[in-house]
Amino acid sequence: MATKSCELVLCFFVFFVISFSAISVSAQTCDNTTGTFIPNSPYDKNRRLILSTLASNVTAQEGYFIGSIGIAPDQVFATGMCAPGSERDVCSLCIRTTSESLLQSCLDQADAFFWSGEETLCLVRYANRPFSGLLVMDPLGAIFNTGELNTNQTVFDIEWNNLTSSMIAGITSSSSGGNNSSKYYSDDIALVPDFKNISALMQCTPDVSSEDCNTCLRQNVVDYDNCCRGHQGGVMSRPNCFFRWEVYPFSGAIDQINLPKSPPPSITPPSPIANITKNGKSLLEHFQKIVLFCFCLFFLFFLVFVYLCF
Q1: In this structure, how many other beta carbons lie within 10 angstroms of the beta carbon of residue 176?
Q2: d(CA 293, CA 271)
Q3: How far apart are CA 139 and CA 151, in angstroms?
Q4: β-bridge partners, 113
Q5: In a domain, 244, yes or no
Q6: Where is the signal peptide (predicted)?
């Protein structure tokens, strides 16, 4: 009897460990609020077809493409975009790998997006409805670095706020004409006294107005400040805008800026934790609650296991 009890508790323990591992969330944002489809249905086939040709369409249109395929209710709308200045083959690879990631992660969601990239930044989005020119604020994708700043937060906040505010003002007041990937784009740096350089990148999709771009980017900055203030960087992304900042230069940004010298980082930046939600509420708060609950559950299973088996 004791052996069976031990086996039962052990099974619960294994299930818990597997479930807990699911907390680590990928950066793909699959929207469950706008409908689903049946795998291998006409909609799914159209989705796969338009994403399979997206890379070639984006590179042929100088880094930005928006289009559709099929007839309602199976019509799929999609867009792809690379950061301005991206090499053709680098842009194509980014769009292809990002499209494949969405196909693998969003198995039946009719709306999804993913800002991604190693060598450059790129966006892939598909939906079951037209979205060109429409500002969409949900869902929100968020990633933050677990490392803490370990500096004067007041001084840091002044430089960080100045950097983000000036970037948004520059993007939305002097955007280039036409619908291309350079219309709403900026990367910049700032030197925080007694700390190091901080690097930032912002971009909006070129189909939205400058006012909508301003709204979207400002909300990204506010959401990061609400959830992740005091950490060493992070990402806030929405279907129409993207914001990333780090305490080190990163791929896809700051590649044409002469960086002022700063002391080398004392530690290697820790791996970020991804956390995706459907709204702009505090992501860190939700994550901490989940971790605390799982830890308590883990401890309870451990006590039961020890009591029954030893």
Answers
A1: 13
A2: 23
A3: 32
A4: 29, 125
A5: yes
A6: 1-27
**Is 4 a member of any domain?**
no
- Long-range (24+ apart) CB contacts under 8 A made by 96-102 are 96/54, 96/55, 98/122, 98/123, 98/124, 99/51, 99/52, 99/54, 99/55, 99/124, 101/26, 101/28, 102/28, 102/30, 102/51, 102/126
The C-alpha torsion from 132 through 139 and 109 to 294, rounded to 10°, is 170
Given 3-state DSSP classes, what are the helix, strand and coil percentages for the chain, each rounded to the nearest 5? 40, 25, 35
Burial (Cβ within 10 Å: 0-12, 13-18, ≥19) of residue 138? middle
Q: How far apart are CA 206 and CA 26, in angstroms?
A: 26
Q: pTM value?
A: 0.74
Facing residues of 201 across strands? 187, 244
Residue 310: inside a domain: no
| The two structure tokens encoding residue 154 | 């007041």
Closest CA to 64 of 137, 123, 120: 123
Confidence at 307, pLDDT banded by 50, 70, 90: low
Question: What letter would DSSP give residue 120?
Answer: S
CATH number of the domain that 40 lies in? Answer: 3.30.430.20
pLDDT digits (tens, 9 = 90+) for 33-84: 889 999 999 999 999 999 999 999 999 998 999 999 999 999 999 999 999 9
